[in-house]
Amino acid sequence: MIENGVFVDEYSLSIVLKACSRMGFVKYGMQVHGLLRKLGFGSDVFLQNYLISMYVRCGCVEYGHQVFDRMSMRDSVSYNTMIDGYLKCGMLDVACGLFDFMPREMRNLISWNAMLTGYATALFDMIPKKDVVSWAIMVDGYAKIGKIDIARRYFDDMPERDVISCNAIWLMAELGYIEEGIALHCYIEENGFHVAGKLGVASIDMYAKCGSVDSAMDVFNDIQEKTVDHWNAMIGGVRTIMKERNLKKIVGSSRIELQGIVHEFSVGDKSSYPAHSGELGVPGCPFANSRVEHV
């Protein structure tokens, strides 16, 4: 851009810094840092935060600290990025000190979550003998706050895995991380874990969300003892696909007999749909073998 005489602004510099951060190109990031100061953007809080993030993610927390110290004005992003960087380097005491120094009005949910994560990690490292529950708690906690890469790393580092750990990591799929969920389902099948209970519900829901009704049906059919939750997950998945295909429910009511109990859904109840694949327009609908009545 510069060689072609194109004007470089804050936005274009931030994109380059973000790319350097993701790729781990700290040397190129340093060059951008020098260019940034040369062009007179050295005091821009927005770009300074990107610089801190780039250095921290590349493992150069000391350079990030230098940028932070030289800032004439800081915002919550500046503090949170540095705190997160210290925690990733295992510097809990330094992170705690910066958190205490951080103006109270700047502390937000991200700040508190970062500190909670730091203390949880420190406590986990102090456990002399960890069991599968200890590992699963860490996986579950990191997944819930959106740190999927760290959650997956803990899962991969588990010396032993069972259905508890699989339940924890499946939260990734429930949070919308479909690729991770599908990869985990393959792991579960390869290792002979039984997909039932909440894990079965999450599996059906995940495949339905990505539009794979056949895969959802395979999971549904493999569950030996189905509960109402499994049926609701499958019905809800079909409902979602029907909406995407602009299909309408036939007016009336439906009755489904499950384990000797008849569940009735009346007109306007969106939780039930016709049982036959032809009526749904959804190939492979699993309800054809169940006793269903339409009024």
Strand content of the residues, in percent?
A: under 5%
Name the strands of the widest sheet in spatial order.
2-1-3
Can you give the mean pLDDT? 79
The quaternary state of the protein chains shown equals single chain
**pLDDT < 50 stretches:** 272-282, 287-295
Compact description:
With 295 residues, the protein is mainly alpha-helical. The chain is 62% helix and 4% strand.
Per-chain topology:
Blueprint: H1 10-23, H2 26-38, H3 45-57, H4 61-70, H5 76-88, H6 92-101, H7 109-126, H8 132-144, H9 148-157, H10 163-169, H11 171-174, H12 178-190, H13 197-209, H14 213-222, H15 228-244, E1 254-258, E2 261-265, H16 277-280, E3 292-294
Antiparallel strand pairs: 1-2, 1-3
Helix pairs in contact: 1-2, 1-3, 2-3, 3-4, 3-5, 4-5, 5-6, 5-7, 6-7, 7-8, 8-9, 8-10, 12-13, 13-14, 13-15, 14-15
